[in-house]
Amino acid sequence: MTPTRRNTPSLEMQQRTRKERRFDDTERDLPDFSGKHSVVASASTTTDKFYAALAYLGLKNPLSRSITANDTVWLLDNTAYRNEKTGLWEAEYVAAMFSQHSSSALVDAVSSIADKINLEERDPAYKTIEERIGPFVQDIKPGTQAKALYGGKSLITLGPSGHNGISSEIKRLPGANDGETVPTLARVPKGANGLLEMKTFYAEAEGWGVISDIDDTIKITQTSDPIGILRTTFIEPPEPAPGMPELYKHIHSLTKSTSSWFYLSASPYNLYPFLREFRQNYYPHGTIILRDSSWMSVRGLLTTLTLGTEDYKVDRMEKIHSWLPKRKMICVGDSTQTDPEAYGEIYPHWVKAILIRKVEDIAAIGIEAKNEPERFEQAFKDVPRDVWHVFSDPATCKKIVEDVVSKH
Question: Domain Phosphatidate phosphatase APP1 catalytic spans what residues (predicted)?
Answer without folding.
Answer: 208-358
